[in-house]
Design brief:
Layout: E1 20-21, H1 28-31, E2 36-37, E3 41-46, H2 52-65, E4 70-74, H3 79-88, H4 93-98, E5 102-106, H5 111-115, H6 122-135, E6 139-143, H7 145-152, H8 155-172, E7 175-181, H9 186-191, H10 194-198, E8 201-210, E9 213-223, E10 232-238, E11 241-244, E12 260-261, H11 266-271, E13 276-277, E14 281-286, H12 292-304, E15 310-314, H13 319-327, H14 334-338, E16 342-346, H15 354-368, E17 372-376, H16 387-403, E18 407-413, E19 434-443, E20 446-456, E21 466-471, E22 474-480
Parallel strand pairs: 3-7, 3-8, 4-5, 4-6, 6-7, 14-18, 14-19, 15-16, 15-17, 17-18
Antiparallel strand pairs: 1-2, 8-9, 9-10, 10-11, 12-13, 19-20, 20-21, 21-22
Keywords: Hydrolase, Kinase, Phosphoprotein, Repeat, Transferase
Pfam family, one: ATPase
InterPro entries: AAA+_ATPase, Circadian_clock_KaiC-rel, KaiC, KaiC-like_dom, KaiC_dom, P-loop_NTPase
Length: 486
């Protein structure tokens, strides 16, 4: 399998040589084309629950693992709470503290202390300076200073205190991440727009609800003097930390199409001129009851018989339902699964957002290392939140597989015969190598099934429509349209 090329696509242009340090956060360094600006401040803004603190914690934890000491200055969370959050991702803050790799400084303010006018940031900066000198800190995360600023009640004082903190960070030469809550009130947002100008890099985190499904997105608003990915990128949380999922389509570092692979149906192999191609993406599209899933399962068993691994992602049926249905056609999936060569994962599309579905799929691919991936059905992916969410999911999965030499087989339920646009308004044809159209056609008072190859990139194939049947013993495929199956 080929290695992935780290390139976000849609990158801006900028002068080379901007000093950067990698965050170690999965996918973020690809979006930032190398990492955050070294010795400068990066601003993380977003609403509640978008993951600002978690990103900051992981930045420090990944740095500590690599031997780069850091400080966490928090104005909102307690130290025990932060340690619990970190432990949930496998980061042992007490151990890092004992080794002098992370220091937690709590600056939670009592409202009466601010209102009486006996508090500013000079004392906190003094503590930071002492900690930084003692542990030779290279990184610092300032979490939620806006909590303190709001208590001041004076925009001039707020700006003065932030300017004081920013100047010290610049003089100290540490790489800083600052998290702030994004204001929805336009008048309040204007009060804090100076933060965007103060920071060298601004990253916006967003959590939204589309069709009753929650999704998270990350976008780089600016990166002074550097190139970066300019789109919105889905992200989520795993037990190992944050995972941002950029698409690498601009590099197009896809493995070439390989040798023929049997579809599991001899007559279909002949129609396709030899079967599916290794590392290709094939779409089986048709209306309900045309045999899409049955063809997919036939391919899965064909590959398992060659001792190759198949990952089956099902968004429509449970394992028991699929096994029961396939047994009626003499396709028994159970031995394949018991052998460990077939891995079956089933989820309701609306159970979570696109980023969780993506992360689960990508982690399954990494853990199982399949030779082939089946997704049944991509039409159900619309229920992940929107048609564009379905496109985001599919384009990233297909791109990921093509770069690793994984053969992909997709099924799609359509209500109208428009197979060229699998997701309404979004065309996936550029990444699909073969399209097979399956139909239920009424003839003389009966429904009959037929199939045709709409396209098969780079190879000769039958251009005829072929009638077929699904029997207790599998498939029977005839010749051209009108040649009835005996």
């Amino acid at each position: 399998m080929t290695a992935i090329t780290k390139n976000t696509g849609n990158s801006g242009s900028g002068p080379p040589g901007i000093p950067k340090i990698p965050t170690g956060i999965r996918g973020l360094d690809e979006v930032l084309n190398g990492g955050v600006p070294k010795g400068a401040m990066t601003l993380l803004s977003g609403g509640p629950g978008t993951g600002k603190t978690m990103l900051g914690l992981e930045f420090l934890a990944r740095g500590a693992m690599a031997g780069h000491p850091g400080i966490l200055l928090t104005f909102e969370e307690t130290e025990p709470a932060l340690k619990n959050y970190a432990a949930g991702f496998g980061w042992d803050l007490p151990e890092f503290e004992s080794k002098g790799l992370i220091a937690v400084v709590s600056a939670r303010i009592q409202p009466d202390a601010v209102l009486s006018g006996d508090f500013d940031l000079r004392g906190v900066i003094g503590i930071l300076r002492q900690k930084a000198d003692t542990m030779k800190a290279e990184r610092v995360v300032v979490d939620a200073p806006d909590v303190f600023l709001r208590l001041l009640g004076d925009i001039a004082k707020e700006r003065a205190e932030l300017h004081l903190l920013h100047e010290w960070l610049r003089e100290a030469g540490m790489t800083a991440l600052m998290t702030v809550k994004r204001r929805t009130d336009p008048s309040l947002a204007l009060h804090y727009d100076f933060l965007d100008y103060m920071a060298d890099c601004v990253i916006q985190l967003d959590q939204r609800v589309l069709e009753q499904v929650t999704t998270r997105r990350l976008r780089v608003i600016k990166y002074r003097g550097a190139a970066y990915g300019r789109n919105e990128y889905p992200f989520g949380f795993t037990d190992l930390g944050v995972w941002i999922i950029p698409v690498t389509q601009a590099s197009l570092q896809h493995a070439s199409l390989g040798e023929n692979l049997s579809t599991g149906v001899n007559q279909l192999d002949e129609i396709l001129g030899g079967g599916y191609r290794r590392n290709s993406c094939t779409l089986l599209t048709g209306n309900s009851g045309t045999g899409k899933t049955t063809f997919a399962c036939a391919f899965a068993l064909s590959m398992v018989s060659l001792d190759e691994r198949v990952l089956y992602l099902d968004f429509e049926e449970s394992w028991d339902a699929l096994v029961s249905c396939m047994l009626s056609t003499s396709l028994d999936l159970r031995p394949a699964r018991e052998s460990g060569k077939l891995k079956f994962i089933s989820h309701m599309p609306e159970s979570q957002g696109i980023e969780e579905h993506l992360i689960q799929a990508l982690r399954a691919i990494e853990a199982f290392e399949p030779h082939h991936l089946i997704i049944d059905a991509i039409s159900a992916c619309r229920r992940m939140g929107s048609e564009h969410a379905a496109f985001d999911f599919l384009i990233r999965i297909i791109d990921h597989c093509k770069q690793r030499g994984i053969t992909t087989l997709l099924t799609n339920l359509i209500s109208a015969m428009d197979p060229g646009r699998e997701i309404t308004g979004i065309d996936l044809s550029s990444v699909i190598d073969t399209v097979i159209v399956l139909r239920n056609v009424e003839k003389k008072g009966c429904f009959v099934r037929d199939l045709g190859v709409l396209k098969s990139r780079g190879r000769a194939h039958s251009s005829r429509i072929h009638e077929f049947r699904i029997t207790d013993n599998g498939f029977e495929i005839g010749g051209k349209e009108g040649d009835h199956v005996k």
